[in-house]
Design brief:
By secondary structure, the protein is mainly alpha-helical. The chain folds into 4 domains: 165 residues, Rossmann fold (3-Layer(aba) Sandwich); 98 residues, Glutamyl-tRNA Synthetase, domain 3 (Alpha-Beta Complex); 46 residues, no CATH class; 95 residues, Arc Repressor Mutant, subunit A (Orthogonal Bundle). Helix content is 49%, strand content 10%. A 3-stranded parallel sheet has the order 1-2-3. The longest helix is centred in the last third of the chain and has 17 residues. The structure holds glutamic acid. The site of glutamic acid (GLU) has 7 residues, from loops.
């Protein structure tokens, strides 16, 4: 049976040695879009052979982050499938078996060369101006091998690169790529403790799982000739490869923490909407082709073409992502927005909202929504409605120390006390009339009221805030601010 001609089978193969990174998530997304758009199969495999660096926490984070982004998989860890556990750590015997088979066929060999001997080999090759790639030329002779075995040295297994020769492939993103075998070492496939290297484990899995397209980061491009040669040596069918360009920060340097969060979990924890994150990831190397700023996963599936992915480095700009997130927040309907911020507001208050308070939140929500880039920002904006007012001291300093503040608070109290129909329009009319009485501009006249009721110069629009706060509490807060000014 051959893999070509059948529906695509792709895999995302993270190592659980770190949180799911935005670059990894983009790789996962492109694999997923390609699979979903072509009636293919998406596989999630765990490349967990590095026992020292794997953690359960990272493994869980990867799965959780994939699910949060809305990326599912048809075979793989947690969901199963016809190829076993999809964890490399469960398949060590299989990798050993393939390595032994390759040795038996003369395509790989037991290697006893030491690190020092290898260094000498490379140095000599350089000084002689010949190919520096290791070709087995520093292996001990028969007696040397026997002596090392006697001394208890276990060999590694190296793949024998056919020489001379070259490996060429047509990368879906990068076009034609050729590697001269003179540049490729006979590489280790099995370590002396019989654990597989990445090259062996990854290739055996790709062959066994009948992967048709390997879509992964460009950092693995130089590994690809090794994987192709191994695949051929195993008698497998070589998949198509697509190497995605690396992510850069806006300064053109390799993406790092300096450029903002790099893990998906950090964006989730900060209250980003998954739709915005996945939308932004999609744009890192692919252009959906129409002018829409936001593109849903379904629309992406319809439009995505692996061969239209750009080979140029993609710029990850955390500020653009924040901007896009704001756009997604504004696109939520009020009820959905209120539902999302309710738990955030409750966590901030450390209590549940009452029925009435929920109604207040829902009423003020559209005004909050407009000015929210990140959902958790909402908590601070509405805290004054559900907790005692806490004055932001710089705000107080700024607007309450002038000579007019006291007059304003007094006049506002009087005017609002007379309002019978507690709606923002009435409240606005009274407060504007107050400006006239006092001959003050809006800033001087309204800011003390704002600080008195909300605690800060930055609050949702004033009249609606006052309406939402309610009559009794508004009057009490104006009185309390006045009292504080009196005491100062
Ligand atoms: N496990 C590898 C990594 O996390 C990726 C393997 C592959 O896609 O071939 O870098």
């Amino acid at each position: 049976m051959t893999v070509s001609g059948s529906a695509p089978r792709v895999r995302f193969a993270p190592s659980p040695t770190g949180y799911l990174h935005v670059g990894g998530a983009r790789t996962a997304l492109y694999n997923w879009l390609f699979a979903r758009g072509s009636g293919g199969t998406m596989i999630l495999r765990s490349d967990d052979t590095d026992e020292a660096r794997n953690t359960d926490e990272y493994a869980k984070d990867i799965v959780d982050s994939m699910r949060w982004l809305g990326l599912d998989w048809d075979e793989g860890i947690e969901v199963g499938g016809s190829h076993g556990s999809y964890r490399q750590s469960d398949r060590l015997d299989r990798y050993g078996e393939v390595a032994d088979q390759l040795v038996a066929e003369g395509k790989a060999y037991e290697s006893f060369v030491t690190k020092d001997e290898l260094d000498t080999f490379h140095a000599m090759a350089r000084s002689l101006g010949v190919s520096p790639a290791y070709d087995g030329g520093a292996e001990p002779d028969e007696f040397g091998v026997a002596a090392r075995r006697l001394a208890g040295v276990a060999p590694t297994i190296r793949f024998r690169i056919p020489r001379p020769g070259e490996t060429t492939f047509d990368d879906i993103v990068r076009g034609g790529v050729t590697f001269d075998h003179a540049q490729v070492d006979d590489f280790v496939i099995l370590r002396s403790d019989r654990t597989p290297t990445y090259h062996l484990a990854s290739t055996v899995d790709d062959v066994d799982y009948r992967i048709t397209h390997v879509v992964r980061g460009e950092d693995l491009l130089a590994s690809t000739p090794k994987h192709i040669l191994l695949t051929q040596a195993m008698g497998g069918e070589v998949p198509r490869y697509a190497h995605l360009s690396l992510l850069m920060g806006p300064d053109g340097k390799k993406l790092s923490k300096r450029h903002g969060h790099t893990s998906i979990a950090a964006y989730r924890d900060e209250g980003y909407l998954s739709g915005a994150v996945v939308n932004y990831l999609a744009l890192l190397g692919w252009n959906p082709g129409e002018d829409d700023t936001t593109v849903s996963l379904d629309e992406m599936v319809e439009r995505f073409q692996l061969d239209s992915v750009s080979r140029n480095p993609a710029i990850f700009d955390a500020e653009k992502l924040a901007w896009l997130n704001g756009l997604y927040i504004r696109e939520l309907d009020t009820t959905a927005f209120t539902e999302r911020i309710t738990p955030i507001v409750e966590a901030d208050l450390e209590r549940s909202l009452t029925e009435d308070e929920r109604a207040t939140l829902q009423a003020i929500a559209p005004l909050i929504q407009e000015r929210t880039k990140l959902l958790p920002d909402a908590a601070g904006q509405v805290r004054f409605l559900f907790a005692d007012v806490a004055y932001d001291e710089p705000s107080w300093e700024k607007v309450m120390t002038g000579t007019d503040a006291f007059r304003v608070l007094e006049a506002a109290h009087k005017r609002l006390d007379g309002v019978t129909d507690w709606r923002s329009e009435e409240i606005e009319a009274e407060l504007r009339a107050m400006l006239g009485d006092l001959e003050l501009g809006a800033s001087k006249g309204f800011q003390p009221v704002r600080v008195a009721v909300s605690g800060s110069t930055v609050s949702p629009p004033l009249f609606e805030s006052v309406e939402a706060l309610g009559r009794e509490r508004t009057l009490a807060r104006l009185a309390a601010a006045k009292a504080r000014l009196d005491a100062e």
